[in-house]
Amino acid sequence: MSSVSGNTTDNPASRGSRSACVYRTVTSLKCAMGVVLLIAVACIAGTLLPQGRQVEEYLAANPDAAGRMRVLDAVGLTHVYDALWFKGLLGFLGVSLLICTTRRYRAVRRSSGRRRIRAAGSLITHISMLIILVGAVVRGVVGQKGFMSLHEGERASSIELAGGGGVALPFSVRLVDFDVEFYSETDAPRDVSVSNRVPGYVVLAWRQNEHVTRLPVLVGEWQAIPGSQGSAVSGLELQVRQYVPDFLADMTTGEVTRRSDQPNNPAIQVSVRGGSVGIDQWLFARFPRFKMHGKHEDAVTDEPPFLLYYELPHKPVEQRQVKDWRSTLEVVQDGQVVLEKTIEVNDPLRYAGYTFFQSGYNPNDPTWTSLQVVKDPGVPVVYTGFILMVIGLCVLFCVEPLLDRAS
Amino acid sequence: MDAILNACLATALLSLVLSTVDLCCRQRRGFGMAALVVLAVTAVGLSVYIGARWAAAGRPPFSNMFESLVLFAWTVAVLLLVLRIRIRLNMLSTAAALLTVVTLAYASTFTSEIRPLMPALQSNWLTFHVFSCFLGYGAFALSFAAAIAFLVAARSNSRVSEAVRSGLEVATAQTVSFGFLFLSIGIVTGAVWANSAWGTYWSWDPKETWSLITWIVYAVYLHCRFMRGWQGKTAAWIAIVGFLCVLFTYLGVNFLLTGLHSYAGLVSGVLNLS
Q1: Does the beta-carbon distance from A40 to B217 stay under 8 Å?
Q2: Global confidence as pTM
Q3: I need a labelling partner for A68 at 20 to 30 A (CA). Which of A37, A301, B94, B147 fits?
């Protein structure tokens, strides 16, 4: 056979060089960056277009869009993160990372000094991403996610999966107690632009016409009191002399102290002056009918034309903000309680590979709790990847430049 | 406390004026140094404000839009001061002062009330996650400014010296590197926190997804130096796109994508394009 052929497509050497060329292109950095950018574009689509169950909501509001949604659904843009092509891109990225890791390893072995450190940092970073992808695959293949709903005293030994169906557990879980804690009125949003502002209001109930005036509790500041019916002048002034969150007084000496810093018994000392009026009283938010005289500074004794109260804002239950939900759970296996723990958000219960997270509650049923239950053997793998990624990036962006400057 | 914040806004504005004069005035009369000093005062003031709010709230002040904007302004100011020690580029001072002013002015449109935290936010991970992310965002903001300045300097009719162009390219690369490290730490801590709160380290939530998109764009930037034809202006444009992704991650997701639950606005616009 002539070594020179007019038709190069039949030349094995050409086919080999074409394969090598394809391999080089597919494993090139530019190709990997292209795939990564495609993943980014797909992610953008996933955030802008309705996904999964959101499609039904969108169609309910926009029935004319049914045709377009069918097209988007056919190409997988209504379930981007579960689409085969998206997983294919991630798979390609994984292969690319594997090849990159191999090349980085060779670079580490061949180089020395700072170049070796840089190559090592790059190697660790790329391996870490590969490990994270592996962890995600483990979650996808063997992970389980579902929920469990319990009333106090109830026991369950299975979970309902998010995608439908159920999984039996090798143990049972009983809800011993459920507790919801709300923020108190004194935990309400505070306006810190006024530094002497204390929660609540001083309420003035005018005797003659039952009109009510509310003044903010501003400690140390004299405030002019509007006249009855909100008119401009009453000739009287009011000052809140001090605020005590947890009032305690020695009834013999009259000395006032505070039992604690918690708003268990909020009280304010109020002075009113003007004309022949001069009073000084302690008002109690929790005990509106109870008054205690403060120290008198002068001899005038006329009472003001209103009654004074210290009022804290009360919100209806449904408007109160939840501070915390807590479920006390008991794990029973083979008839014995093997674990008991009170869980809350950010502090789950872990047993036999399953993790129970405090998820939600029913405002109309304070004995009911909702738990998120997850089994994910991939988590330690992913966390290992996270740690390695941070280490690798620190080597690349901190250690190597420091060594570079030092030399 | 708000008086401190207002004072910081005023000093940031003063720094902006001084640094702009320094840029425009050919005979440098110390305006550049004065601008830096005033920006340093702003950074100190913001540090005091954040510390005072932390003490008043009894928790790190990183939990809502107002607090995060103040933190963002702080990171931009502080990182500029650190960068300026290594790279003498006065135009970056102007950009940092402008960013600080705009951020604090925007923050003033939000209430400064200290609000109690919802259960999911009651975690130490909040501090690490938010602080890391905003160190990243601050660095990316500076890289955005440096990249724009580089593109302007790289025009064919530009009289900017090669040294300055090179300095801007280095500034972009260094700030992106710093930002990428802390964005990565922010994403990782966020994932760990999400796993401890909700049982999943990644749920393709719009906020998470856009932070990943931002991370990808900057990862591409960092690889640019190894790809022929992708250095210089191409890399600068990638850095600019990256910061636009940062803005969308930080603000766009909150204000545009939350509105998408009613599927008005952006999504309808996207679907109507097809």
Answers
A1: yes
A2: 0.78
A3: A37
